[in-house]
What we know:
The protein is α+β, with helices and mostly antiparallel strands. The chain has helices at 7-17, 54-73, and strands spanning 25-30, 35-39, 46-47, 51-52, 80-88, 98-107, 111-120, 128-135. A hairpin with a 4-residue loop joins strand 1 and strand 2.
Amino acid sequence: MGLTMDADALNAFLAREFQQIAGEFIVDTADDEVLVARLKVNQSHLRPGGTVSGPSMFALADLAIYTAILSRIGPVALAVTTNASIDFMRKPEAGCDLLAQCRILKLGRVLAVGEALIFSDGQDQPVARCSMTYSIPQNRPNSGG
């Protein structure tokens, strides 16, 4: 299945439907294989010890996989996370944005499964790995506008 939304369309959707995260998360790129989303790390994402918090990394993974699914099915705001697993592997660098490289592993009629590797910008080794399952609404009543 090809893309129905590119990075620009996904960012416009996020700005419209999720104003509470405006400016924090950006979809850098989206193609048929990989979506890359960015968390613009600031002081509010840090925890004691000078590292990015786990909840901030989880939010990035959730947004990356969500937008990767939407890139294929269109602007369905009511697609929701039904399962999540995250492995924290390394301490992210506090002064760097985080990037999530996401792949969709399965896209069915009612369920989608994706995986995201999270990196500190400019680093080769991932700091976290996350897999998530999403429920896709049957009727898709909210197409985002």
